[in-house]
Design brief:
about 35% helix, globular, Rossmann fold, about 260 residues, single chain, 9 helices, four-stranded mixed beta sheet, alpha/beta, 2 domains
Length: about 260
């Protein structure tokens, strides 16, 4: 959603630090004008684009080539233009895993419960599989969506968000927008079924400490907020466009403070 996006601040910071001759702007595009927007960007000679909700799946029909990762996820968030062609990839899964690694959390050998079955969940299921999670289940309020996503990846759809049955050290990941500003009093887990031996991850980053994470911390659990994923997926996108390695970790505290200050 363009009203909340921190991406221009994120990319502006990295572009300045790297001394790149580049600029990053946010544009709101209506679904019916998506093809026109792509054609215009290509005609203007842009290097690339990020794509956000609600266009990550619809944009795929307008691209010349999509890499294996984005095809497997079923969504594109990063486009690169080269020689008149548009190439699509997805940095959400990689950004998510980099954020977990940075926060000393590994999904390898762990049970994972994913809350939500929307666009963000696709990348997270893919990431969990790539990272070696042993058992992945998806809970969504609309069961049909969870079942469809679970079938796509060959994982389990959960009838309820039952954290009591999870193994010690399991990871619970919120991919929904529940708890996002301005409705900050909501949590995607009804009641208070939080355990100190589980790890809770929220993709929401505004506010940084959502009710979901606050309740988990109160229970003594390890938590990871959503700002790291935003930072790392953005760095991967810029790296993709500029064909260069970007070590965003060295700027992480400074960048995190900047983005936190820009939240409405």
């Amino acid at each position: 959603p363009m009203t909340h996006t921190l991406s221009p601040h994120l990319h502006g910071f990295m572009i300045e630090k790297l001394g790149l001759p580049a600029s990053y702007f946010a544009f709101s595009v209506q679904p019916e004008r998506l093809g026109d927007a792509l054609a215009g960007a290509k005609a203007l000679g842009l290097t690339g684009l990020n794509v956000t909700v609600p266009h990550k799946q619809a944009v795929m029909a307008h691209l010349d080539e999509i890499d294996a990762r984005a095809k497997a996820i079923g969504a594109v968030n990063t486009i690169r233009f080269e020689k008149g062609a548009a190439f699509g990839t997805n940095t959400d899964a990689g950004g998510f895993l980099e954020s977990l690694t940075f926060n000393n959390v590994s999904l390898a050998g762990r049970e994972v419960l994913i809350l939500g079955a929307g666009g963000a969940a696709h990348a997270i299921v893919y990431a969990a599989q790539q990272a070696g999670a042993t058992a992945i289940s998806i809970f969504n309020r609309t069961a049909e969506r969870a079942e469809k996503l679970a079938a796509h990846f060959g994982v389990r759809a959960a009838a309820e968000a039952d954290t009591e049955r999870l193994a010690n050290g399991a990871v619970v990941i919120n991919t929904t927008s529940v708890g996002m500003s301005p409705k900050v009093d909501a949590s995607p887990l009804p009641g208070n079924p939080f355990r100190s031996d589980l790890i809770y991850v929220d993709l929401v980053y505004n506010p940084l400490k959502t009710r979901f994470l606050a309740l988990a911390q109160h229970a003594g659990a390890t938590t990871v907020d959503g700002l790291g994923m935003l930072i790392f997926q953005g760095a991967q996108a810029l790296s993709h466009w500029m064909a260069m390695e970007i070590d965003v970790e060295k700027w992480y505290p400074e960048l995190r403070a900047l983005l936190a200050s820009k939240m409405k």
